[in-house]
Amino acid sequence: MLRTSLFLSCFLGAINFAYAQSVEDSLKLALKEASGSERTRILINLAKVSQDNNQSLSYATQALSFASSNSEKSSATNQIAWTFKNLFQFDSAKLYVKKALEYAEKQNDPLVISDVYSTYGSIFNNTGGFDSALFYNKKALEYRIEAGDEQAQAASMNNIATVLQRLSRYDESMEYINQSISIYLASNDKRSAADSYLNKGNLLNSLGAMDSAYVSFQNALKEYEALGLKSMMPYALINMATVAVQLERLEDAERRFIQSRDILLEGNKNPQLLAFSYNGIGGVYQAKQQNDSALFMFKEAEKYALAAQNEYLLSMVYNNLGDIFRAEEEYNTAVNHLSKAHELKTKIGDITGLASVSITLASTYKSLGELEKADKYYQEGIKLSEQTDDKVTKRKAYQEMYLFQKQINRFENSLAYLEKFMMLDDSLINDRNLDKIAELNTQYETEKKEQQIALQEAQLGEQALKLERNRLLMIGLVLIVILFLAIIFLVRNRAKKNEQLILQEAQLKLREAELNAVINSQEKERNRFARDLHDGFGQLISVLKLNLSGLNDKDAQHPEKRLEVFRNGESVINDMYAELRSICFDLMPQTLVKKGITTALKEFGDRITQSKKVVCEVIVFSNKERLPEIVEISLFRICQEWVNNVMKYADASHITIQLTRDETELTLTVEDNGKGFDTELFYNGKGNGWKNIQTRLNLIKGEFDLDSHPDRRGTMMTVNLHEASIKRIPTSTEKQITA
């Protein structure tokens, strides 16, 4: 499918320069009788309206030779710079526009200065310097506001909107376009309104409103045809064709692209527009799976893009060539072209295009089996797409990442990206509904404008009919507005309910997992306590009973025998007491309840060391105040869970438990010198260890970090709690934690 980055922008100059041929003829007649400043002015205007760039350059050069004032010299030099820009001789254009600015600053005329800044902006826009283009066009707008020229202000707004779109700042771009259209419609400037419709169509498509974008491009085409501006028609045709591809109307798209190419080949053979046309035809053939024909067209597009010296356009062509070779499973060749596209889009700051290229590169590396590079570019594509408002690219990024994470068995990450993809897909459906509303509104506004023009030309005898029609239009407008508001309310209400439902389902799943972990942990603990009581305490009771039964023997009447029985019974009772204290410690250490986590951890470490299985060292810094009960219990249980795992699996000889607290945070670390392991196996394991730890972390808003590797010894587990989180934990939450 053809990419959205194919779209063109119509970048306007200070004054509309493509008048009808009759205007040029009239100026030529006037030139024969003109002299002095009038002759200079006519030559400058001829340079602006001429369809032939070389002829335009000749007129502007003559005007400069006759110019006497700084204002005339600035205008003539600026027009020479503009013409060199159209001839893609950008170094010459920059040289002359610099001279034009020097003349304009001497004249100190804000309108003359604004024209020069506008030319600066156009040159940088054509060469991919979008930040510079934005700066100079905003400077032009400031001077035009100072001069009070609304038409010139509208032209600057249109230029600024175009650059902002290239920078993916869509909301700001739409504001400037709407302001420019309002000015042009108010002054009945159809040519300029057509240019603004073209730019608005580009922006609407970037936002995913494709039907409205097509209507906007179609309005621009109608105005260009009516005004006889054949040189401007390819702009509208190429954009209409690109939208048609996205709407899967391939026959319409092919017809529009070929029509634009034929107009260009018959005319001035503009290399930039020809590159767009050939690129578009190639995209249609690619969508039809006619890859050989598509490859030929893309090669033609590359030739013209190089001639135009347009890095933005060239990056698009390389991107499409990469797609073709990828479809033919020539993955290394595809990577070569996609890497060129990636480099160019990075250079020119095309964030939206760069996100798309990164996703395609990642997919290609995945096909080559280079999963590490694939993961790198998938992550880059996700990050870039989330910086833009391009929902189509963002949707594709989430879908591709979901499939990739699933392939490499990262099922939790895969599920997260699937949820993002589904939410964005629902959002696009809602946007399309709103797009239909916008399309109806556009059609209504167009019909309203046509009716107003027709009514202005009517005879005085039709005044009564005009009033009746106006009344009906107002009623219709009110009804449509009410209908629009109702539809918008319903759509937003549905979207809100869907969002709430998805959130509730996610919360239920999380709660269910936590409850399962708690129940499994409780059952496990109960089994262990029952086993400890049966195997330890129960056996000791049996020994005590057996010892006491010895008193029934005949020789038990002897004092020595009774003393031996007594001593043996005392020893068993001491063992029973120690066993009972150990079981009670596991259930809920009284040291933890009465004296706090510092003392409890030290007692815990001492018990482990006394077992002679491993040496456990406990270090505590600056933990003088007692923590909330839920925090102390949770931290102790997390430490206990982790140390038990270390003793079971790590084959460690030394464990260090460290508790540190300062003004900003509290940190618990458990470090051992045992065998390392793959942390992903721990996170994704089927056991309840991680789930138990995670449940307690969620209760105290803790952060967890694990540092271990199978190829080295030693593991460190870290839990961080921010001081602010500790203070915000409510007392009632303590009831949620049991022994």
Automatic annotation (TrEMBL):
Any GO CC annotation of this UniProt entry: membrane
UniProt protein name: histidine kinase
Organism field: Roseivirga ehrenbergii (strain DSM 102268 / JCM 13514 / KCTC 12282 / NCIMB 14502 / KMM 6017)
Broad enzyme group: transferase
Transmembrane segment boundaries: 472-491
PROSITE patterns named among the record's database cross-references: HIS_KIN, TPR
Signal peptide feature range: 1-20
Protein keywords: ATP-binding, Coiled coil, Kinase, Membrane, Nucleotide-binding, Phosphoprotein, Signal, TPR repeat, Transferase, Transmembrane, Transmembrane helix, Two-component regulatory system
EC annotation from Swiss-Prot or TrEMBL: 2.7.13.3
